[in-house]
Design a protein that fits this description.
single chain; alpha/beta; 2-enoyl-CoA Hydratase, Chain A, domain 1; seven-stranded mixed sheet; 21 helices
Length: 516
């Protein structure tokens, strides 16, 4: 028992750290309807697995050799397990100076990032911090030149391990940027905000007052594409993290794990035969197709409130994780605008980074047209999407369920690697829609006719007669046309076959660099 006094002091110091910002700070957090950082960690991780790093870091006060006061660092970091998988975690403690940077000690969050990178473990940020503070200037006796997130390990992390950020308070400055330096991020409805800078800074810069709940609300963050998903509560946010990670490998050098599935890979869903209306002007529910084809209850949507003409998410086929996309005809007719293009680019980079085969249910009428689409730079985003599609290397299969037109329709195709494109009998395609292209291609003939309108209808009817997908199949311009009810068996077989291709590519590096 020689060192028992030192052990007692260690326990005492650990107890001080666990008090965080003190009773008042903890009560304020609870009054605001939020958990403390240590409560959050306990709720998120597997019980008894959190190994804290740097627990004793903080600001101590001494009288002689005696410790008389201690304020812990406002960042808690460590290694833990989530659903049996080791991850690195960092959490902001808002009870200690609001999580401001001038209360940080030793840049623990950067240490956590470095650990996740070098150990090749997924990284999770629990963000509840206000960023920098002018108090720091007074404390250090000078101002300083900003470093920025690039000075840390975030860019390398994004191309090595899965990264998740959860916004759990009013987040501004660097923590707000860190919210976006992730493959998946979440905020909690009503109790959280995310913005470049808060209302006082906006007032000083622009001269108007705005409450933080309006400036950084979930509506603003989701519509801008800053935040992927919104949770109803902190508990739901933690469940979303667990589910997202379940589809991904620990790092880029591993294959996503297959889970046991009770859903028959040969299941044929009769409803698929009637889901696409004969009337091209009528919409349908794309989520029903995903429900009927993918493993039951396996679809996990990512970024549902942004770029709504394209649905993206993770799912499973016979237990194998996949990335899945489908056009949504209920928004902009399913056409790709700037937001949908950005969403697709980021999603394809995610799949390619973490070895997820891609399944695309294509119903693409083309890029969004009109003055607003031109002002927003649809062409630039379309060009980027075209490049990203061509550079992906993961096995990819496209199922044309209704229409493919123009350059955007061509993004259902990739010329290299393991790729397949098939169609349902409901499919139609071309360089442009017959209805819109007839006047452009036959303008003189239509104008010279005694009855221009009748002539236009006649030409359109003539063109529609040769628009059958079977004529395209005769020229081997589409590989196969299948019964929609055979879609699930077809996809399950493709994804199972793809596993050996994915394994063979593990020693290679994707030419795509993941950018948030």
């Amino acid at each position: 028992m020689v060192w028992q006094p030192e052990i007692e002091e260690l326990k005492y110091r650990e107890s001080l750290a666990e008090q965080m910002g003190g009773k008042e700070g903890v009560e304020r957090q609870h009054t605001a309807g939020k958990f403390t950082v240590r409560e959050r960690i306990a709720k998120l991780v597997d019980p008894g697995t959190f190994q804290e790093i740097g627990k004793l870091a903080g600001s101590a006060r001494y009288e002689g050799d005696k410790l008389v006061g201690f304020t812990p660092s406002n960042t808690v970091i460590g290694i833990c397990e989530i659903e049996g998988r080791k991850v690195v975690l960092s959490g902001g403690d808002f009870t200690v100076r609001g999580g401001a940077a001038d209360a940080a000690v030793g840049n623990k969050s950067a240490y956590a990032e470095k650990t996740a990178l070098e150990w090749k473990l997924p990284y999770i940020r629990l963000l509840d911090a206000t960023g920098g503070s002018v108090r720091t200037f007074e404390q250090i006796g000078r101002t300083y030149i900003p470093g920025g997130p690039g000075a840390n390990h975030a860019p390398l992390l994004l191309n090595t391990v899965p990264v998740v950020s959860i916004v759990l308070g009013s987040v501004a400055g660097l923590p707000a940027v860190q919210a976006c330096l992730a493959h998946f991020n979440i905020m909690v409805k009503k109790t959280t905000q995310v913005f470049v800078a808060g209302p006082p800074v906006v007032k000083a810069a622009l001269g108007y007052d705005i409450p933080k709940e309006e400036l950084g609300s979930e509506e603003v963050a989701v519509n801008s594409g800053v935040i992927d998903n919104v949770a109803e509560s902190e508990d739901e946010a933690f469940n979303l993290v667990r589910r997202f990670l379940s589809y991904l490998p620990r790092n880029i050098d591993e294959i996503p794990q297959r889970t046991k599935s009770s859903d028959d890979p040969h299941r044929r869903e009769e409803k698929l035969l009637s889901v696409i209306p004969r009337d091209k002007k009528k919409g349908y529910n794309p989520y029903q197709i995903l429900k009927w084809v993918m493993d039951q209850d396996s679809f996990f949507e990512i970024t549902p409130g942004y770029g709504r003409s394209r649905v993206t998410g993770l799912a499973r086929l016979d237990g194998y994780p996949v990335g899945v996309m489908i056009n949504n005809p209920m928004f902009l007719g399913g056409s790709m605008d700037v937001t949908a293009g950005n969403k697709v680019i980021r999603f394809l980079m995610l799949c390619d980074t973490f070895n997820l085969p891609i399944v695309y249910f294509a119903d693409e009428p083309g890029f969004m047209v009109g003055l607003e689409a031109e002002k927003q730079g649809t062409l630039r985003v379309g060009a980027r999407a075209s490049c990203v599609t061509a550079l992906t290397r993961m096995p990819w299969i496209s199922i044309v369920i209704r229409q493919l037109y123009g350059v955007a329709g061509g993004l259902s195709f990739r010329s290299g690697g393991m790729f397949r494109r098939i169609a349902w009998p409901s499919a139609n395609w071309g360089s442009m829609h017959i209805e819109g292209g007839t006047m452009a291609a036959y303008r003189r003939e239509i104008s010279a006719a005694p009855d221009p309108e009748a002539k236009r209808v006649e030409i359109e009817r003539r063109l529609q007669a040769i628009a059958s997908p079977y004529r395209t199949a005769e020229a081997f311009n589409i590989e196969d046309i299948i019964d929609p009810r055979d879609t699930r068996p077809f996809l399950c077989d493709f994804i199972a076959t793809a596993q050996s291709v994915i394994e063979s590519q593990m020693g290679e590096r994707s030419t795509l660099i993941y950018l948030p």
